[in-house]
Amino acid sequence: LAPMIYLGILIVIGVPGNLTVLFVYLLKFDSSTYRTFIVALALIDLVGSAVCMPFEIIEMNFQYTFYAVGACKFFRFNNTFVALMSIFVLLALSADRYRRVCRPLKPQMSVFMARVLCGVAALLAILFSWPILFLLGTRHVSLPNNVTGYDCSTSDKYKKTFYPLVHAAILFITFVVSIVSLIVIYSLIGRKIFKHVQFRNTFRTTKSSSISSGKTSSTKLPSEGKETVVLVNVNKVTSSTDARKQSNGTESKKPIAKQNENNDGKSKNKITKIAFAICLAFILSYLPHLIITVWTAVKGGFIAPPGPIVSAVLPIVTRSIFLNNIVNPFIYGFLDRRFKKIVLICVCKK
């Protein structure tokens, strides 16, 4: 009962949460690579919340009386497809962040290319998932009192072959390589940001020291009937005519350009933080599932003696990956002020 309640809560949170993300980013945000990847992830998470989780509840409810072979194949395929699609889209998002932060002067990813990569991610997810349509089905399970149960698992036809093991190994290697790639990419991004912050702090310190050590003298210039005091360095004397040109000409545009540059930098850092948080959430939600899967395969049976606590907790931990389908809307709410503001406005109107 506990695993069903757990999944039911996730469905109640995940479906409206991901619908909200789709509504806000599709209708309120301008087209960009960031929006493209966020919308793709929201669609994936919506499928996970509205399709995959309900199937898990049904499968647990009919654990040894699951006779629908077609439904078993389809939903198991869908579960794997959603997980693979998520990580492939995250890799594409991370590659975009890497180029924008670590290679800002190189050609950047376009919106069209981001959409193409989402399509490639879907094709790769199908390529890695399609064997499930053949390998899985209903498996006969011997129960007490000479009763035969039917479970949605590896089909009896392939149970004693090496095909399920090969496919499981391919999926395992794919996920491990992808997770390691994400860790490497964000390590490089973090290193670049750290160096940039260090350089900026050093530059500010040097600039502050040079200003404080220089000698200055004050000069009064007329400016629309008011006295304006201009500090002039003794070593570089500027004529009153040049000072007026600078105050009325190109120099007045520099603060605006600098402000725009700062805004662009803040936006880039915000998006990078969100992308990192999404990837971290995926890794943390998938690790328990991965550990239990490997542990079960190594032991070749139960990882703990059967009991009421194990029966309640283990199915929840095994399905920890479903947390990834509900957590992203919360990440956007905490880290994206614009998303949060739009959601609050919509809620307050109601």
UniProtKB/TrEMBL annotation:
Region named Disordered: 240-266
Gene Ontology MF terms in the entry: G protein-coupled receptor activity
Membrane topology type: Multi-pass membrane protein
GO cellular component: membrane
Membrane-crossing residue ranges in chain numbering: 6-27, 34-57, 77-95, 116-136, 165-189, 274-297, 309-335
Stored InterPro entries: GPCR_Rhodpsn, GPCR_Rhodpsn_7TM
Taxonomy, superkingdom: Eukaryota
Keyword Transmembrane carried by entry: yes
One Pfam family, short name: 7tm_1
Compartments where located: Membrane
Polar residues biased stretches: 240-250
Domain G-protein coupled receptors family 1 profile, residue spans: 17-332
Keyword Iron recorded: no
Keywords: G-protein coupled receptor, Membrane, Receptor, Transducer, Transmembrane, Transmembrane helix
Cited PROSITE patterns: G_PROTEIN_RECEP_F1_1, G_PROTEIN_RECEP_F1_2
Family according to the record: Belongs to the G-protein coupled receptor 1 family.
PANTHER family, sorted: ECDYSTEROIDS_DOPAMINE RECEPTOR-RELATED (PTHR24238:SF47), G-PROTEIN COUPLED RECEPTOR (PTHR24238)
Protein name: G-protein coupled receptors family 1 profile domain-containing protein
Species annotation: Magallana gigas (Pacific oyster)
